[in-house]
């Protein structure tokens, strides 16, 4: 895997300045000439958080600032953070959401009509103003719902494998492999050349799903026994890289599952944000514990992570080796039901809202 992303970072050169090159890499289409854009209304429908659910409201259309694009959204998808957005809003209503797909309608005449997918605050609206570095072109043939389901997971999981320094031929363990991120992490690891991908779920019925997206072995375990199962499955070698989406007590288990000189990347905290770890366990195996976090990452680094998808990951999306896993698609106006689906914990993959 190392060769791939050394190349990627060299080629990407940061952000998405060379949009055309990235567009070509993934076979995207859809650029219309300037002048074909319809007159813009002043207000738009948006989903507001802050009252315990997602409420449909009317707000002004954002005006893109320098460095931003204005995108007319076609679909948006829910993330774990949307389930708890009320708690961080302080009771003040604001436009919800982080992830979308749509079409550029402003901010850069050369990109008008380009289909893009990306991430921005206030994404759950008919229009979103987005840092131009935070979108990538939508590969040809990819439907709006699938495009909306991918960007956060793609750049987070690819970013996690990148910071881990993962290399082709290695073994990767994905905890909570059935989470929306984990399902993409399994596929990205495969595409980057992992020799073996192990993934976990607490639900026996989801093992088939993990195997369907590319896991060689789906482990149904959620505690200390997981490290034993991983060591047994790897002939006591342990795994080279762990992408951990659970946190809490799983962090120590992940360290115990790692090979000597292995890397554990903390990606998610589904099981809690606090962990007690055996520092002797870390030292004995010379394991490195790292983390990636969208919320604490500077905009330019998010731009670099999205640009780094161009050479390998976006072509894999374009040819179907990486596919969105969609739990359900709801009309934009049925957002409350979609949020209930996410909060209920039964979703398998992404919950998506469509606007067209
Ligand atoms: N680092 C970043 O930049 C970044 C970006 C986005 C999200 N995240 C974080 O990544 C994590 C995953 O997000 P997501 O949206 O992909 O999750 P998700 O789709 O909501 O994952 C839900 C699934 O995870 C499993 N799960 C839930 N709680 C668990 C627990 N306590 N222990 C073990 N498994 C559990 C369950 O599957 P089973 O039935 O198989 O147990 C559940 O169906 C979250 O913590 C999220 O905040 C991080």
TrEMBL record:
Example GO molecular function: NADPH binding
Top-rank taxon, per record: Bacteria
InterPro entries registered for this protein in UniProt: ADH-like_C, ADH-like_N, ER, GroES-like_sf, NAD(P)-bd_dom_sf
Alphabetical list of SMART domains matching this protein: PKS_ER
Matches recorded under Gene3D superfamilies: Medium-chain alcohol dehydrogenases, catalytic domain (3.90.180.10), NAD(P)-binding Rossmann-like Domain (3.40.50.720)
Pfam families registered for this protein in UniProt: ADH_N (PF08240), ADH_zinc_N (PF00107)
Keyword Ubl conjugation in record: no
Domain Enoyl reductase (ER): 50-353
Annotated keywords: NADP, Oxidoreductase
Name of the protein: NADPH:quinone reductase-like Zn-dependent oxidoreductase
Organism: Nocardia fluminea
Biological classification of the source: Bacteria, Bacillati, Actinomycetota, Actinomycetes, Mycobacteriales
């Amino acid at each position: 895997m190392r060769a791939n992303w050394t190349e990627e970072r060299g080629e990407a050169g940061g952000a998405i300045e060379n949009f055309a090159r990235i567009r070509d890499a993934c076979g995207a289409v859809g650029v219309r000439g300037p002048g074909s854009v319809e007159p813009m209304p002043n207000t738009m429908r948006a989903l507001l958080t802050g009252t315990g659910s997602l409420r449909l409201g009317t707000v002004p259309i954002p005006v893109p600032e320098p460095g931003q694009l204005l995108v007319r959204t076609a679909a948006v998808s829910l993330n774990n953070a949307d389930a708890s957005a009320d708690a961080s809003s302080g009771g003040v209503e604001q436009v919800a959401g982080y992830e979308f797909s749509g079409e550029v309608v402003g901010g850069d005449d050369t990109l008008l009509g380009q289909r893009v997918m990306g991430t921005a605050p206030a994404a759950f609206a008919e229009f979103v103003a987005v840092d131009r570095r935070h979108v990538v072109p939508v590969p040809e043939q990819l439907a709006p719902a699938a495009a909306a389901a991918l960007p956060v997971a793609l750049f987070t999981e690819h970013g996690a494998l990148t910071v881990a320094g993962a290399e082709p031929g290695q073994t990767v363990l994905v905890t909570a492999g059935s989470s929306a991120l984990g399902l993409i992490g399994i596929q990205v690891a495969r595409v980057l050349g992992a020799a073996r991908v192990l993934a976990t779920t607490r639900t026996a019925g989801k093992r088939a799903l993990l195997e369907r997206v590319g896991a060689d072995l789906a482990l149904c375990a959620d505690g200390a026994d997981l490290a034993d199962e991983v060591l047994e499955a790897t002939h006591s070698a342990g795994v080279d890289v762990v992408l951990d989406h659970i946190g809490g007590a799983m962090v120590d288990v992940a360290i115990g599952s790692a090979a000597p000189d292995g890397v554990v990347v903390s990606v998610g905290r589904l099981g809690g944000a606090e962990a007690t770890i055996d520092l002797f366990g870390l030292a004995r195996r010379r394991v490195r514990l790292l983390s990636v976090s969208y919320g604490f990452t500077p905009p330019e680094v998010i731009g670099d992570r999205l640009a780094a998808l161009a050479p390998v990951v976006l072509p894999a999306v374009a040819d179907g080796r990486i596919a969105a896993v969609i739990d359900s698609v709801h009309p934009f106006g049925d957002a409350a039901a979609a949020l209930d689906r996410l909060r209920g914990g039964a979703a398998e993959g992404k919950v998506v809202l469509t606007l067209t």
